[in-house]
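step: validate -> pass
step: tokenize input -> pass
step: predict -> running
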Amino acid sequence: MKRTTLAAALFGASLSGLNLSGAGAQTGSFFLTTTPERLTRFLKAAGYTVTLDRSGEQPFLKLENIDDGTDFYLDFLSCNASSCDAVFANVLYDPKDFKQAPTLASVNAWNQDYSTQAYLDDENKPHLISTYSFVGGFTSANFVAWVKDFYGDLDAYHQFLDKAK
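step: predict -> pass
step: emit ->
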């Protein structure tokens, strides 16, 4: 989500917070804790193709991106038997997919305009990440909207990297 859009959304949210009387009916149930299984149900209900993997230390979800074939992952943070504190969406690109590998300057240019953050790892592979915290509670509608925004930024980032050739 572009920073200007994010700022407008946050400003609108702060104004709408002044009158909370009907907010619960529009946003769905409010959850204080969550599990990967619950989020999988939310995402599948929203039409996403999701695979849950619990084989490592922390669980993750794989979401298929049918637009450009680049899947992305939701990695969970600070999970215990009943809940996780946060999740971060991430995608990794292979620089071989582009005629010219992205430069640090081009990745930093992305970060000036978007709330999702891009970086180059030690092998100059470009990544895109965004974090969502469950601490304090959340709604399924808000979480699914965050995933949708990441999908949009993912596609925009791919196009951005293509243009950086």
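step: describe -> The longest helix spans residues 140-163.
step: cleanup -> pass
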